[in-house]
Amino acid sequence: MSFPRKVFEFLKASSVAHAKWDYEVSMSILKNRKKMLILLALCLPILAVTMLEAGDMIGSKTAYAPAFYSTGIFLASIAIGLCAGLITGCIGAGGGFIITPALMAAGVKGILAVGTDLFHIFAKAIMGTSVHKKLGNVSVKLAGAFLVGSAGGTFIGGAINKGLYDKDPLLSEAFISLVYAVLLGFLGFYALADFLKSRKGSAGGDAHGGPSGATGLSIKVQNIKIPPSITFDEDYVPGGKKISGVIVAAGGVIVGIMAAIMGVGGGFITFPMFVYVFGVSSMTTVGTDILQIIFTAGLAAVAQYAIYGYVFYSLAMGMLLGSLIGIQIGALTTKVVKGIHIRGFYAVSILAGFINRAATLPKKLTELEVINLSKPLVNGIESAGNVIFWIVVSAFAVWVISKFVTNIGTLRGEDEAAAPVLAKEKV
Hints:
single chain; mainly alpha; 15 helices; 2% strand
């Protein structure tokens, strides 16, 4: 397998792992009446106040009030959360990658979009994760070393974003857009090639695939003898496995930096890193990943963005509310749509995010005087990128919701048929 292909499989597995976590956390909130009432209690006053158009964003280049723009942007945050949830629930991957680009496309500054997305992830993790159910699968030493690294990484990533923004807000916008354009471009084009091959019958697997099995890389990594050594997976391997704590912490640094720069919580890369690079069992990884997302997203959101006013709490709550609805609808819709269509939409949705961020770069680079293009041209390119992005995302949302509505009878019948079986299992 070629190196680019390995990277694609790694990133795709990352996207799938993050979506799985997002789905499980969202279902935990949806099935708990008390949690839903708390969320509604937070969202309804925000909506009521924004309806009055009582406030504007205040502050300067270096600080913002933790407020809101307007009713329109709050409703847009709900729509963004809904679309991201539909993608996550239906496709099983990719939804978390479009939130920050979508917020930026809606007019939110890049650093505010990153901070708000991180806070949204942190709030969802706190509300929806039952950590005590997974703690038996956590290697305390492994988690400790990783969290020390990820904590340091969040400060590095946050310092990069804040430093660029303090130097020039345009530089910050260009940097965040470039990071997303590279990531989504690589992932999107490979996903598209994967989809086209699957249509011809030359590629197997489903939309939720990814690399599997032991890797030679994990064996090599475990053979690197740098003290202190950490033993893990004692319950699955006689005597357990060993890995250098320094390497685990270094992995945490990478995750923390990515989380703080992109606003994705770090969960999207932790799972494949633990399983395919460190050689940790899936069960241990799940428990550790839960703790990692809570602490990394929380530390990045609060210590790196919230205290500087780079979080819109109202938008975070709007996205959380929208994503819960979207994930539920998307997950149910997978029962009545073809897998090949899911593969196609996965590639198209990722590429839409790539086009949106890439289309902003000519304007940003021209304003930074790195290149020299006419203002009408760069404005036209940016507008075209926005239009393409919203058309693709809206079309996907309409398609999923229409499939859900037209097949609601079928879905209800499946649930009724499954109810007696579930009742017996509980007994």
